[in-house]
Amino acid sequence: MSANRITLGQPRLNADRVAEIVARFTPRDYDILSHLHEHRVLTTHQIEKIFFTLPQPTRRRMSVLLGLNAVARFRPWTPHGGSTPSHWVLGRAGAAVLALRQDITVKELGYHPDTTLAISMSSKLGHQLGVNDFFAQLHHHARRATGAQVKEWWSERRCAKLWGDLAKPDAYGRWAENGREIDFFLEHDTGSETRSKVAAKLTDYANLADATGITTPLLLWLPSHARESNLRQLISSSDLPVATAVHTSLGDGPAGAVWLPLGAEQPRLRLAELVNAWPHLIAPRNEAEMR
Description:
Layout: H1 15-23, H2 27-39, E1 42-43, H3 44-51, H4 55-67, E2 71-74, E3 87-90, H5 92-102, H6 106-109, H7 114-121, H8 125-144, E4 148-154, H9 156-163, E5 171-177, E6 180-188, H10 195-212, E7 218-222, H11 225-234, E8 242-246, E9 260-261, H12 274-277, H13 287-290
Parallel strand pairs: 6-7, 7-8
Antiparallel strand pairs: 1-3, 2-3, 4-5, 5-6, 8-9
């Protein structure tokens, strides 16, 4: 497939065709489609990290789903040449199946075929993929480690519906490992915003904590050590539990000992160990409490 080409023009569906597609679906297929709907776009590598263990089975199954029009794909154009992985989005048949499972219409699901084109052309595509890669790495670690699990992963859109009038996190997550569990908001920083603008977001999260009565740690996932050092100097203290780390896929990635709480110098902590840094600020909660 040539760069930026998108699988559009998907055939119309009738009840018999939907039934035929459903008969070929596995539970994992439904999970893949649900993630594509929630998180808009995932690369082949990210899908492998979340749902598979090897590249070949990943590509083989995604090709089957593509043939069923359950997914669509595109490859972004790059100014420097070379190949990029396939980027996967929800397809017409996939949306129909998800809507059927929820007993709603495709329109109520929020799907439109033009969404594929909008995602591929979005100036925020790189940022979205960065957020999704953070969680893909957590999933990848959880699949290899005993006692680790991504228990929640809410998209930016879902967060905006709940808290958008106060704060706009890139994602909300809940991570468990070795008996520890932590809820967090994620700010995936690419360096495109000024440091003062990033620092100002802490006020929004403080307002959210005051409004909900729930203090949720804020994780700042930063593009370089220089950016981290400069930002930490700017926000040397906060009433919020804040930790910083630099983008990495080495070792255990964001699950590993890469997090430095605000006000601390060393050592860096594993993601799950951050609960030990703020025991007086973090309380268990359920989904109803988060609303």
